[in-house]
Amino acid sequence: MSFSQRLLEAIVTSLPNRHWDNHDHRRFGPRVRTIRSRAVAFVEDALASRHFARFYADDVVKKLKVLAPHWAGIEWLYEHLADADSQSLLVQLMAYRVLGDRKVRLPLSTPDYWRQVEQFEALGDAADSLPTGFMGWSLSRMKLHSMGFPIEFYFVPWGACATFGIRQYECPTAEGCLKALPGEVVMDLGGCWGDTALYFAHSVGEHGRVFTFEFIPSNLAFLRRNLALNPNLSARIEVVENPVWESSGCSLHYSDNGPGSVVRPEPFAGMAGKVETLSVDDLVVGRHLSRVDFIKLDIEGAELAALKGATETLKRDRPKLAIAIYHDLRDFYTIPQWLNALNLGYTFHLKHGTIHAEETILFATAQ
Questions:
Q1: pLDDT in tens, 115-159
Q2: Is there a contact between 328 and 287 (Cβ–Cβ < 8 Å)?
Q3: How confident is the model over 220-277, as pLDDT tens digits?
Q4: Taking the model in full, what pTM does it have?
Q5: Cα–Cα dist 367/362, whole Å
Q6: N-terminal to C-terminal alpha carbon distance within the chain
Q7: What is the widest separation between alpha-carbon atoms in the chain?
């Protein structure tokens, strides 16, 4: 069955659903039920029929029109995913983007997921927390030793669950698990508050190295505080205080908005300052790195530019890749198509780390 057939089938079969509990209140706050949404729920419950799908026809058509310009590209990705589970996940993700959380449950939306989040919440010390200034979030001091990680840091528990519980930067495949291994060199593009740098430092062991790119002042303050709490791991980590880009020496403007910070070539309202870029290729040359084994990218939509700045490293080393593609629908296909055009033999897998639209990770490996 083609991607188009599977997506349309998923949409039709999901229309009768009413998943009022399918909402991440930790990430987005309590669900606000409006008068309209309550009225819709009442009528749905009264009719409880698939024929009631026409009630949503106009809204569904509008959302499908938004998806339409990307359809061929997403279908290309579907056809180039290396396993059936990744293909099914892609269909679910697109159905979710069309219908939303009241109609479509993503794979993690289970009682087991919430139990795991609660386990991480129990590890946090609410009395020892730091305000971030971002969306009202506070970072609790957490000790992850009982989870198998000799790590102590300030973080949001559900975010720690994604990195260390769900292990969103590990991807099981038929050939083995795609992840950072002992002794490897990792590029952590998008260090933010330091969770992934510490995770990778633990994964690569004492003979591995991690280069974490982070330049936003507020993020750097939390990152360095977290590294200081873990001196054994931080000895393997080098913080690179530049935005990663297609080329080095470009002057970019940035906003300081924690995890939601952005960079742009041109000035914009609310920007906090300017900073110069550094490409992966130039870092590799400057640090005399004989190899790079794993590259993780989550940099708010600048992933393709960063990959272009790693072209020579990709050609030389063919590192494993874990790339956030959820920021823009175009990333679902422009990024794997660009990698495919390099003719390096990369194959693709998908993993998703939340019950909502964020944290879709494209894994790529070359034999």
A1: 999 999 999 998 999 999 998 899 999 999 999 999 999 999 999
A2: no
A3: 999 999 999 999 999 999 999 999 999 999 999 999 999 888 888 899 998 999 999 9
A4: 0.92
A5: 17
A6: 28
A7: 68
Alpha-carbon distance of 39 to 332, in angstroms, equals 36
| CATH numbers and ranges of domains, the chain | 3-99 (no CATH), 117-366 (3.40.50.150)
Residues present in the chain in total: 367
Write the CA distances from 14 to 19, 73, 145, 196, integer angstroms. 10, 24, 41, 35
Residue type, 171: C
Q: Which amino acid, 209?
A: R
Strands 185-189 and 209-213: parallel
- What distance in Å separates the CA atoms of residue 345 and residue 367, rounded to the nearest whole number? 7
DSSP assignment of 247-280, as one string?
A: SSS-EEEE---GGG--EESS--TT--EEEE-B-H
For tokens 């991440």, name the residue.
24
Determine phi and psi for 124, rounding to 5 degrees: -85, 145
CB 191 within 8 A of CB 223: yes
- Residue reference for tokens 């490409």: 279
